[in-house]
Task: structure prediction
Amino acid sequence: MSDSVGPAQFCCAISLLSVLASPASYSQPPVCEVQSGRVSSIRLGESIDQVFRAYQNDFEIVEVKPRPSTDPLIPQGPHLFNVVEKSSKRKWIGFWVDEEKKILEAYITAGSCATKEGIRVGSTLGQAISAYGRPELSPADVGYFVGFEKLPGIAFLLNDSDIPKRLRGIPDDELAAKQEREIVSYRRARIIEILVMKPAQ
Result:
């Protein structure tokens, strides 16, 4: 039996490859761009209705209400709307809103969202420094955020496990300049979240 491929078989193989390579045969996840004060067309300070308009079909919006305050003098805190991809059940973005349903902050946990320079969840601190210059470190309960003067209102949360244990969890009022320099020297530290805030006026 001959191993050669005849013209008819060759044509069928090419047709099959064309179908597999066709954009209609698979769906690319939408890309969202992170900018100062907004995520794509969704602007901070405006209504959460923007999110429902922007993320339909492949996504669901899950509302997480805060626990009601037991003290009538203490107002109810902000609550959260999560954008979840239906197919993977993966959370892309969380939007904190106030009592008037205006967006206060957004935090991004999916690598499908990136800045114009391509910095996203999964990028390294070194890549962010190459794009934006000298970082400013801000300790938080969840780890260390880094921000950049060139990118106001945006902070990147570093993966604590990429930083030595002796440098983790140091409060802001105890963090020495030498320790701060050492933390930001770990250029391979990965970004695990992007926080988008309304830039100061």
Summary: The helical segments are 7-21, 49-54, 125-132, 177-184. DSSP finds four helices and twelve strands in the chain. The longest strand covers residues 151-158. Residues 156 and 197 are 11 Å apart (CA to CA).
